[in-house]
C-alpha cells in the first residue's frame, strides 16, 4: 500500500518540525504561555502562531525569555489569559488601542515583578482592578485610560514606590481616593478624571516631598468635602483640575503658594466664601473658577496682576459692580474672558493701546451692562445678550448669538480638486495630494494653557513635532475638527500619512507610531499640556495577503506533508466532490449569477464582484451564530436584519429576505450590481451578498448609533445639538448628491426619510436602503415614469400626482428631513403635516420669516438665529410644490457648508468625534414600503419605528 509509505514520511516531517521548535530561541515554558495567550484571542497579528514566538509581531526575547510585548493598535480581539502572570521576565506590556481586547485584567498580572510599564489605553477591560496591584514593584508607567474598570482603586496602589505615570482616567471606578497615594513620592502624574470617585480628597495624598508631581487631574468625578490645604505644599505642580465635582467650602488661601501652576480649574463645584487673592500665581495662563457659589463680590482687583492669564472663566460666580477697563488693558496675553451670568453693570470698555492682540472672545451674557464704548476692535467677539444694553440696541452685533472662532485645520486648499474614497478610510495626503490610508485618531489635551483655536502658529508646531518624532515625512500630518469638548479638553483629530509614498502603513509602522503615542515618547509643545490618544481601527492591507515568517526548510516540510495529506483526502473524497460540483454547475448555468461564479472552486477564495463579496450560506450562518435571536437587530416586511461578525472582525448587518418575499433572481442581481457600484462615506457601505440555498441576503457595514429618527426621538442616550444636526444634514446631503451627480448612471433614492439615515459612533450620517432606488438611464434622462413608491409625509406631491420621478423628488424628501432636524417632530403627527404648518406660520409672520421658531426643538433653541433661519429657508425651498423651483442636491450641499462656515466650523471635517458612545447599541435597516392601500396617519406615525421593538443590549 503506497498510503503506508506516505504516512511514514508524513510522521517523519512532523517530527522534524517538532524538533526544530524545541531547539528554537525561546524557553519552552514561555513558548507555551504565549500560545495560551494567543488561544484566547479571536483576532491577532498574522505572524502570531507561526513557529518562532520571538519573531511574532511585538514580542521581544532576551536570554530565551519574553521581555516585552509591544502590540498597540494591532486589532487584537478577545481576553487576556491569566497565563500572562507566568511571563515573569516581562519588563513592558503595551496592548493599548485594541478596543476589542477586554474581559477582566487577570489578577496574576501582579506576579510580573520586573514589569516597569503596563499600558492598556483604549481597550475594553472591565471588572475590578487586582487587589494586589501594589505588588508590581518595578512599575513606573501604569496607564489604564479609557477602559471599563469598575469598583474602587486598591489601597495597595500606594506600594508602587517607583511610579511616575499613574493614569486610571475614563473608567467607571467608584469609591474613595486611597490615602496611600501620598506615599508615591516619585509620582509626576495623577490622572483619575472621568470616573465616579466619591468621598473627600484626602489631605494625606499631598505633601511637600512629592517633588515630581506636575499634574493632578481629578475632574469629572463625584468628590465632595472641601479642597485640602495640603495641596498648597506641592512644590512643582503645573496643572490642577478639580472641576466638575461637588466640592464645597472655600478655596484654601495657600493655593497661592503654587507658583508653578499654569492651569487651574475648580469650576462646576459648590465652592463658597470669598475667592482668595491668587495674584501670586504669576504663571497661571488658564484659570476657571466658574459655576460656584462664592459670596457676592466685586471683580477682584488682584486679577489685574495675573499677567500670564490668557483664559479667564468667572461665569456664574456672583460678581457684581462695574467691569473696569484695567482688566483688559493690564492682562496683555488675554484670549478669552467668560464672565456671563453675573451681576456686572455699568459700561463695557475694551479700548486702549494695550489690549491684547489675541483677545477674541468676551462673553458677558446675562449681566447688567447698560452701555458699550465705541471703537472696540472688530476681531473681538462680544456677547451681551441678556443685558439691558440689548433692550435698547437690539441690532448691535453684540446682541446676536456670538459667532465662533474658526478653528485651525491643516490647509488642504492646494489639493482642492482631489476626491478620495473616505468611506474606505482614504484621506488626502497633504504632501502629495494623493489618496492614501492614514492612521487616524483623536488627541485629547486635558490641560492646555491656551484657548484660541485659530492660533495657526501653535498648531503648526504641533504638526511639526508629530511628524518629527513619529518619523514621518514633513507635512504629512493633517489636523482637523479642533474643539473643546464637554469636559473642556482640547480635542484634535489627527491623520498621519505614510512617509514612503505607498498607500498604507504596515503593522510594524503602526505599532511604532502607536507606541510612541502610548508611551508618551511623543511630547506635544508645552502649551498643549499632556495628552492621550485614542486611534480609530486601522485596516491592515497585508493581512489578506498573509505574511508568514517561517524558514524555508520548514515551509518545504509543511508543503510536502500537505501535498501528501491532500492526495490522501483527494483520493477519498473525489467521488463525492465530483458529484457535488456537477450539481452546482447545473444550478449556476440556469442562474443569472452564472457569470459571477467562482472561476475555480478549489482555491477557496471568495469571488469579487466589483468590490462586493459573495458569501455562502454557511459563512453567514456561522457569523450570525446560526441566525440566533440575540443577533437579530431588526424586522421588516421583507424579513429580518441580523448582526454578524465576519472572520476578518468586520461587524456587518445582514438583511435576510423572508422566503416568499424575496424578489426574482434578476431583480436581486440588478440590486447587487447597483449596490456594488456605490461607494461613499455618507452611504451605508455594501459588503456583499449571499445567494445560496434559495436565500437572498444583502450584507452591509454595521452602523451602530441607530437611525436619525431614533436619535431625534430621544431614544439614544445623547440628544443631538445644533452643530451635530448641521453635520448630519451635510453628510446626508453629500450622500444624496453623490447618487444624483456622481453615480453613473445617476440614481434616485426614492425613500429619503429620517429612518433611512443611519448614524455611526462619530455621528457621521450614512444614507441607507437603496431598495427603492431607480437608475436613471440615458433614454429617460430627465424623469422616470414609475409606480409611486415612498413613505407618506416625505413624498413629493408632484411625483405623487404625475408619477414622474426626478431627482427633485429626493430633494423634497430631504427638505422634510431638514424640517425634522429643526423640530425633531415626525412629518405627520396627529394628523398635522409639518411642511404645511411651517409654511403657513412663515407666511403669516409676514416678512419676519421667523414663524418656524415655534416649531423649533427646545434643545437647539439657543443656536445662532441667523443660521437657523438660513437652514429653515433652505428647507422650505426644498419642499416647494413645483419640482422645478427646488434646488439641486449639490446646491444644498454648498449652502449647508456655508452655514457651517458661518458657525465657525469646518465643513471639511467629520462630525464631532468622541461623542459619547451609547451603551445600548442598536441598528435599524429599513426596506421598501409600498404605498398602495396605506394612507392613514397611524401608518405615517409608525413608519419611523418599524423595527424599534427590538433592542439589543450590549
Ligand atoms: C527580574 O527580577 C529579578 C529579581 O527581582 C532579577 O534577578 C532579574 O534579573 C530580573 N530580570 C530582568 C530581566 O531584569
Ligand atoms: C456614582 O456614585 C454614586 C454614589 O457615590 C451613585 O449614587 C451613582 O449612581 C454613581 N453613578 C454612576 C453613573 O455610576
Ligand atoms: C507657603 O508654603 C510655606 C512653606 O511650605 C508656608 O510656610 C507658607 O505659610 C505658605 N504660604 C501660604 C500662603 O500658605
Ligand atoms: C452697579 O452695581 C453696584 C452694586 O450692586 C451698585 O452699587 C452701583 O450703583 C451700580 N452702578 C450702576 C451704574 O448701576
Ligand atoms: C518610552 O518612554 C520612556 C520614558 O519617556 C523613554 O525613556 C523610552 O525611550 C521610550 N521608549 C521608546 C521605545 O520610545
UniProtKB/TrEMBL annotation:
What keywords appear on the UniProt entry? ATP-binding, Glycoprotein, Kinase, Leucine-rich repeat, Membrane, Nucleotide-binding, Receptor, Repeat, Serine/threonine-protein kinase, Signal, Transferase, Transmembrane, Transmembrane helix
Signal peptide positions are 1-24
What Gene3D superfamilies does this protein's entry cite? Answer: Phosphorylase Kinase, domain 1 (3.30.200.20), Ribonuclease Inhibitor (3.80.10.10), Transferase(Phosphotransferase) domain 1 (1.10.510.10)
Q: Which organism is it from?
A: Zostera marina (Eelgrass)
What positions belong to coiled-coil segments?
none
Catalytic EC class: transferase
Write down the EC number.
2.7.11.1
The name on file for this protein is: non-specific serine/threonine protein kinase
Look up and give the membrane topology term. Answer: Single-pass membrane protein; Single-pass type I membrane protein
Domain Protein kinase as annotated: residue spans = 627-900
In this chain, ATP is annotated as bound at 655
| Cellular compartments annotated | Cell membrane; Membrane
GO cellular component terms attached to this protein's record: plasma membrane
Amino acid at each position: 500500500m503506497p498510503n503506508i509509505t506516505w504516512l511514514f514520511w508524513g510522521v517523519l516531517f512532523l517530527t522534524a518540525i517538532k524538533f526544530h521548535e524545541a531547539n528554537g530561541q525561546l524557553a519552552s515554558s514561555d513558548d507555551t504561555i504565549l500560545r495560551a495567550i494567543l488561544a484566547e484571542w479571536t483576532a491577532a497579528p498574522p505572524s502570531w502562531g507561526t513557529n518562532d514566538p520571538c519573531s511574532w509581531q511585538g514580542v521581544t526575547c532576551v536570554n530565551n525569555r519574553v521581555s516585552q510585548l509591544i502590540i498597540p493598535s494591532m486589532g487584537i480581539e478577545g481576553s487576556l489569559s491569566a497565563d500572562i502572570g507566568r511571563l515573569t521576565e516581562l519588563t513592558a506590556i503595551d496592548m493599548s488601542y485594541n478596543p476589542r481586547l477586554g474581559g477582566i485584567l487577570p489578577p496574576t498580572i501582579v506576579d510580573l515583578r520586573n514589569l516597569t510599564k503596563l499600558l492598556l489605553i483604549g481597550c475594553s477591560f472591565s471588572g475590578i482592578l487586582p487587589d494586589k496591584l501594589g505588588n508590581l514593584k518595578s512599575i513606573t508607567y501604569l496607564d489604564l485610560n479609557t477602559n471599563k474598570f469598575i469598583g474602587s482603586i486598591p489601597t495597595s496602589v500606594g506600594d508602587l514606590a517607583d511610579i511616575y505615570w499613574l493614569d486610571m482616567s475614563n473608567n467607571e471606578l467608584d469609591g474613595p481616593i486611597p490615602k496611600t497615594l501620598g506615599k508615591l513620592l516619585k509620582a509626576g502624574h495623577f490622572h483619575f478624571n472621568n470616573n465616579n470617585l466619591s468621598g473627600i480628597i484626602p489631605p494625606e495624598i499631598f505633601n511637600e516631598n512629592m517633588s515630581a508631581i506636575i499634574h493632578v487631574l481629578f475632574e469629572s468625578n463625584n468628590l465632595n468635602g472641601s479642597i485640602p490645604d495640603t495641596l498648597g505644599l506641592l512644590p512643582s505642580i503645573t496643572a490642577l483640575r478639580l472641576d466638575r465635582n461637588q466640592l464645597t467650602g472655600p478655596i484654601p488661601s495657600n493655593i497661592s503658594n503654587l507658583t508653578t501652576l499654569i492651569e487651574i480649574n475648580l469650576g462646576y463645584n459648590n465652592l463658597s466664601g470669598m475667592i482668595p487673592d491668587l495674584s501670586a500665581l504669576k504663571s497661571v495662563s488658564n484659570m476657571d473658577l466658574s459655576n460656584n457659589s462664592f459670596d457676592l463680590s466685586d471683580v477682584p482687583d488682584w486679577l489685574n496682576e495675573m499677567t500670564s492669564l490668557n483664559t479667564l472663566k468667572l461665569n456664574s460666580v456672583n460678581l457684581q459692580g462695574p467691569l473696569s477697563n484695567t482688566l483688559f488693558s493690564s492682562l496683555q496675553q488675554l484670549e478669552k474672558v467668560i464672565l456671563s451670568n453675573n451681576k456686572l453693570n455699568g459700561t463695557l470698555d475694551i479700548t486702549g493701546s494695550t489690549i491684547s492682540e489675541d483677545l477674541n472672545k468676551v462673553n458677558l451674557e446675562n449681566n447688567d451692562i447698560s452701555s458699550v464704548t465705541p471703537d472696540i476692535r472688530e476681531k473681538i467677539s462680544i456677547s451681551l445678550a441678556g443685558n439691558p444694553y440689548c433692550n435698547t440696541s437690539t441690532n448691535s452685533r453684540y446682541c446676536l448669538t456670538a459667532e465662533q472662532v474658526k478653528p485651525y485645520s491643516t490647509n488642504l486648499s492646494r489639493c482642492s480638486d482631489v476626491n478620495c474614497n473616505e468611506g474606505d478610510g482614504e484621506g488626502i495626503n497633504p504632501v502629495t495630494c494623493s489618496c492614501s490610508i492614514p492612521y487616524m485618531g483623536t488627541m485629547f489635551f486635558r490641560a492646555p494653557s491656551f484657548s484660541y483655536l485659530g492660533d495657526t502658529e501653535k498648531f503648526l508646531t504641533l504638526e511639526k513635532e508629530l511628524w518629527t518624532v513619529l518619523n514621518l515625512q514633513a507635512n504629512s500630518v493633517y489636523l482637523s475638527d479642533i474643539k473643546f469638548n464637554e469636559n473642556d479638553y482640547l480635542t484634535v483629530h489627527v491623520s498621519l500619512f505614510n512617509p514612503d509614498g505607498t498607500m498604507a502603513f504596515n503593522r510594524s509602522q503602526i505599532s511604532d507610531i502607536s507606541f510612541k503615542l502610548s508611551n508618551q515618547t511623543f511630547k506635544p509643545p508645552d502649551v498643549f499640556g499632556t495628552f492621550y490618544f485614542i486611534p480609530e481601527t486601522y485596516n491592515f492591507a497585508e493581512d489578506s495577503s498573509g505574511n508568514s515568517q517561517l524558514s524555508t526548510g520548514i515551509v518545504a516540510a509543511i508543503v510536502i506533508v500537505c501535498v501528501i495529506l491532500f492526495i490522501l483526502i483527494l483520493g477519498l473524497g473525489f467521488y463525492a466532490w465530483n458529484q457535488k460540483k456537477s450539481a452546482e454547475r447545473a444550478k449556476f448555468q440556469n442562474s443569472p449569477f452564472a457569470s459571477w461564479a467562482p472561476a475555480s472552486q478549489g482555491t477557496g477564495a471568495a469571488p469579487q464582484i466589483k468590490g462586493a463579496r459573495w458569501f455562502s450560506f454557511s459563512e453567514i450562518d456561522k457569523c450570525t451564530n446560526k441566525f440566533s435571536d440575540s443577533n437579530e437587530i431588526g424586522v421588516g416586511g421583507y424579513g429580518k436584519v441580523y448582526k454578524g461578525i465576519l472572520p476578518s472582525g468586520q461587524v456587518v448587518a445582514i438583511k435576510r429576505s423572508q422566503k416568499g418575499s424575496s424578489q426574482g433572481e434578476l431583480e436581486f442581481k440588478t440590486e447587487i450590481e447597483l449596490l456594488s457600484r456605490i461607494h461613499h462615506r455618507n452611504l451605508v457601505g455594501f459588503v456583499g451578498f449571499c445567494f445560496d440555498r434559495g436565500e437572498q441576503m444583502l450584507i452591509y457595514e454595521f452602523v451602530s448609533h441607530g437611525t436619525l429618527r431614533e436619535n431625534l426621538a430621544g431614544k439614544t442616550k445623547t440628544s443631538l445639538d445644533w452643530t451635530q444636526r448641521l453635520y448630519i444634514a451635510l453628510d446626508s446631503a453629500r450622500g444624496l448628491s453623490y447618487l444624483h451627480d456622481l453615480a453613473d448612471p445617476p440614481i434616485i433614492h426614492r425613500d429619503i426619510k429620517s429612518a433611512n439615515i443611519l448614524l455611526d459612533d462619530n455621528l457621521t450620517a450614512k444614507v441607507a436602503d437603496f431598495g427603492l432606488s431607480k437608475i436613471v438611464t440615458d433614454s429617460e434622462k430627465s424623469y422616470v415614469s414609475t409606480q409611486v413608491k415612498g413613505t407618506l409625509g416625505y413624498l413629493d406631491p408632484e411625483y405623487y400626482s404625475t408619477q414622474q420621478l426626478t431627482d427633485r423628488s429626493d430633494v423634497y424628501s430631504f427638505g422634510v428631513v431638514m424640517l425634522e432636524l429643526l423640530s425633531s417632530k415626525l412629518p405627520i403627527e396627529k394628523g398635522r403635516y409639518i411642511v404645511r404648518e411651517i409654511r403657513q406660520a412663515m407666511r403669516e409672520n409676514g416678512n419676519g420669516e421667523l414663524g418656524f421658531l415655534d416649531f423649533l426643538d427646545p434643545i437647539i433653541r439657543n443656536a445662532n438665529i441667523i443660521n437657523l433661519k438660513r437652514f429653515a429657508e433652505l428647507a422650505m425651498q426644498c419642499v416647494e410644490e413645483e419640482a422645478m423651483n427646488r434646488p439641486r442636491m449639490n446646491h444644498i450641499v454648498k449652502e449647508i457648508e456655508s452655514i457651517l462656515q458661518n458657525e465657525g466650523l469646518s465643513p471639511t471635517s467629520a462630525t464631532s468625534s468622541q461623542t459619547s458612545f451609547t451603551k445600548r447599541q442598536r441598528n435599524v435597516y429599513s426596506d421598501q414600503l409600498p404605498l398602495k392601500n396605506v394612507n392613514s396617519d397611524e401608518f405615517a406615525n409608525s413608519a419611523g419605528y418599524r423595527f424599534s421593538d427590538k433592542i439589543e443590549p450590549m
